[in-house]
Structure formats: C-alpha cells, structure tokens
Amino acid sequence: MQRSYFPFITTGWLMLTLMMAGLSLYADYSRLKKDLSNDAQFVYSSIYEKAYINEVLLQSFTVLVSSSPNDQESIRSFANEMRKRYPHIERLQIQRQQKVDGSNFGRAEDFRIDPTRDDFSVRFPITFIEPLNPDTRYLLNKDLLTDPVFTETIRFVRKYHQPVTSPPFTLDNNKTGYGLFLAFFERNTAPSADNLYIASLIIDTEGMLPNTSFLSEHASISLMDENGEILDQHLSEATTRLPIWLPTLEEQRTVTRFGQSFRIKIVHKFGPKNINLGMLLILLSASLAVYFMLTAYLRQKVKAAIEHSSIYETLKNERQQLEVRIHTRTRELREQLVENRRLTHQVLAVQEKERRNLSRELHDELGQSLTAIRTDAKILKRVHPEENSLVNQTAESIDAIAQNIYDVTYGMMRALRPSALDDLGLIDAIQECIVSNRLAEHGITLHHDYRGALNEMSEDYNITLFRLVQEAFSNIIKYAQARNVWLDIHRTSQGQRKEISGDRLEVMISDDGCSFDIEQDAFKKGFGLIGMRERVRALGGVFQISKNHDRGTRIIVVIPLGSEATTSASERAIPDQEAPAEPAH
To answer: Which segments does the entry list as coiled coil (predicted)?
Structure first.
C-alpha cells in the first residue's frame, strides 16, 4: 500500500509546498500593496491639508487687505508670519487694477469693471510683495496681465472672484511653483474700478509634498498637475538593480481643492527585501516535516494494518460468542419474566379464590350465628315486653350489637368479594363499589362512560377491572382532594391503542385533584399502584400513569381480550415504561 501511494503523496506534497510558497509571496505582495495604499493616503492627506491651508490663508489675507489696504505694516507683518509658519509659501502679493496710460495699451474709456465682459484696457501691477528683498524688488509694479503665464488666470479671477490656480512656472530659485489668485473689492466702499484688488500666493510645489523619509527602496513619489506634467518627484535611493520582470505596484490619488488640482502617483518595485524570508523558511520547514511524518505514518500504517486484521478476526469471534451468550441470557430472562407474570396471575387468582371462600364462610357461618343471636334477643323481648325491665334492655342491646356486627361483616364481605360481580356482572358490581365509597359525601362528582359488551367477559377480566376501580377510588378519596372523577370503560376492536389491536378493554380513570411526583412516589411507597400494574400486566395489558392536564392524575389501561391476550403478554415480556408524568394516588 505504501509503494502504490508514495508517488501520489510526493506529488501532492510538492503541489502543496508550491501553493504555500505562493500564498506566502501573495501575502507579502498584498502587505506591500496595503502599505503603498496607506502611504498614498498619507501623502494625499498632507497635500489636501496644505491646499486647504493655502485657501484659508488666501481668504484671511484678502480680508485683512480689504479692511485696511493702506496699512502696509500690518499686512507685511501678517505675510511674514504666514511665511514663517508655512514654508511652502514662497511669497504673498497684491495687485491693484489701474488704468492703462498711453495709446499702446488701448483707450482709457475702455477701462471698466463689468465682470461679464472680457474687453477691457487695464493693468494689474504688483503693489505689495513679501518678502521684499533685492531678489524680489524687481517684481514691484510688474503688470502680471502682460505675463503670458498669468494672463488667462487674471482674466478669470477678475471675472468670477473665486480662487484660481495659475499654470506651473519656474521660480527664481529654479524650483517649480504655481500661483493661487483671488479678486476682491475694498471693504466698506462701493465696488468700482479704483478699489479692485487681486491677492495671490506663490507656492513652492516641492513644499507641498510631505517628508518622504518613509519611502522604502525602489519607490518614488510624483506630484503632477491635472494635465499629467510632473511638478515634483522624490526617488528613494536604490543600492541594487531589480529585474524588469518583477511586478511594479502603483497607487494614484487626485487632489482637487479650491482651484488647486494635483495628481499623486506612488510607484514601488516588488523586490526580495519585500519578501518575508523567515515565514517562507518556516513554511518550507513545516512542509518537509509533514512530508517525513506522513511517509513514516504510512510505513507504520502498513504494519498496523496486519496487526489490526488479526485482532479484528479475534474480536469478531469473541463478539459472536458474546452475542450468543447475550441472546441466550435474554431469552432466559424473557422466559423468567413470563413465568413470573404467570405466577403473579396465579397468586392473584388464588388470592381472589381465598377472598371468595372467606366471604362465603363469613356469610354462611358468622351470618347464621348473628341471625340466631338476633332471633333469641327478639324472643327475650317478647317474653319480657316491659321496656324498663333489665332483660328487655339487655335483649335490645344484644340485638343492636348483633346488627352492627352484621353490617360490619357485610361490608367486609363486599370488600372481599362483591356478590354483584358473581350475580349481576361487572357494571353492577362497579356501581355497587361507587355507592359503597359514598363519593357524593366526599364532595366528588362522578362522570362515567361504559361502552361495549362489558358483562360478557371471563372472571379474570371482571375481577381485574373491579379491583382497579376499587383501588383508584380509594386513593382518590384518601389523597387526591378532587372534585370531579371521570371513569371510562370501553370494549372495542376498532383501530389500535398502546400497540394493542383487536378485541380489547380500554379504561381511563382521571381526576382534577392534586398530583405527586411519579418518579419519587408512584411505585416506591405502598403496594396499591404496584398491585394495579401487576394485575394488568398479568393479563398482557399496558398500565400507564400520567398527569391529567394542569391538575390531577390520569390512569390509562389497555388489556387485550380473547385468544390474543396470552400471545400479547409473551410479546411484551419486557416491563412497560411508565410515562414520565405525575401519577395517580
């Protein structure tokens, strides 16, 4: 078995190893991609924040100038402070609209400020600049409208009075920058040609990018304008050259804020330094260890299979022998149980016979003696009719005592063996039992339902049913505290009940009194319920106790009749399971 499976296991191991290595590389690639995305988001946030600062600074600058255009000291102090705080601001400027003097610049009557028209003859010289030093002094009075870089920007901002960005241009220090312009009128004066200003920020694009020390090897960041022209670029130092076939990761972001539009591109070349060699080595080592353990397991399995086969045959033989012994023992127990039930039935029959004989002896012997005593007492009363005489009173007392003894004896005879059961049948015997128990005197209302040929059964069934009803009524009176009792006795052959079909007896006795715990008390205290159950089982029937809905107890008995009774009893040799509910009393 090992030789046949070994090539497949080796091939599977190689494929699994390659897959794990690929997953490890993919995890490294995904991690690098995630890091690159985080770096791009960081750069985007930094540039967006600076673009927001530019707009807020320009707005604040225009508010200050519009409120006090002649307060050069405050304006310069503010501009100087902003440049110190934000190094990417190269300079701050103010241009003011002026008429064009001379024919070379158009007619003076074309001087107007209607923002809906583009035909105008004006100039926008720089009237304020910060920092003002020898390198920037030449810009004072320079008309930006004549500069091709700013012409369209000046025209647009003059027309719409919104922040507008100029095209990128080269600064004095050979760096790339751009201008952010905003037109405004002097505050607290009516808009006119004389009080139109344009404030501008000249921004160093190199300062827009954050510190790029976080860049790893073979990575670069490019800042481009909306047309894709590179404004600034940072490249990490590379000590080795990577093959061109290695994958390259790229992330792009677009920043558009207050007229400032940029594109950010971060590129990273996937290289050996991005591979988690430790994890890859662990995976390969684990794969080799699994391969060697698996081959060792196969060798051990071949050896164990032979031993298991021998042990299996031995266990199989022993199991067959054990099953034979269990089957034999089960049959013996079943036969013993059937015999026990037969003996129980016989004991009950003998008990009933003894009760009948005892009842007859009480009736024949004691009854006749009591009758003779009462007769003699009555003779004495006739001989001595005087009521005050001692003989008459003694005879009266003897007669009363004899009558009481007769009544007690008659009650004992009915309890031992109801004469109605032999003379009139089951139903009348049950009715006599109901009367003798005086249910009404105990505040109990009886609801009964009798169906079928109940008076055409043998003595075994009659006495069993009578004893069941007698014991149930006794328990209800003693313990149940019930107000209603239901007694249903049906003889039927329709359908099936409790796995018993054909001609059968179905008995239900229930009450609405208090119940108790069947597991703790039903068949562990006293012999009343045990006797009822054994009488039913002796006839091959089923005895079940359960709770009667919310209150009370219910007893259900099903007994097969006729020739099927003996067969059913042997088939149900294993004891019936009582329902796990609160039983009768």
So the answer is: 312-368
Given 205, 233, 266, the domain boundary residue is 205
Tokens of 97: 């609209």
**CA 55/CA 76 separation, integer angstroms:** 18
Query: Domain check: are 449 and 529 in the same one?
Result: yes
If asked whether residues 99 and 29 sit together in one domain, one would say yes
* Residue 114, token pair as written in the block: 């209607």
365-376 pLDDT tens trace: 777 787 888 888
The helix (run of H) or strand (run of E) holding residue 467 is helix 459-475
Phi-psi region of 249 (alpha: psi -120 to 50; beta: other; left: phi over 0): beta
Is pTM beyond 0.85? Reply is no
| Domain range enclosing 382 | 290-417
From CA 156, how far away is CA 116, in angstroms rounded?
11
Backbone angles phi, psi at 546, to 5 degrees: -150, 170
Strand partners, 491: 505
In this structure, how many other beta carbons lie within 10 angstroms of the beta carbon of residue 251? 19
Instruction: Report the Cα 519 to chain-centroid distance in Å.
Output: 35
Q: How far apart are alpha carbons 107 and 90 in whole angstroms?
A: 36
* 556 DSSP 8-state letter: E
- Answer whether 183's CB lies under 8 Å from 122's CB: no
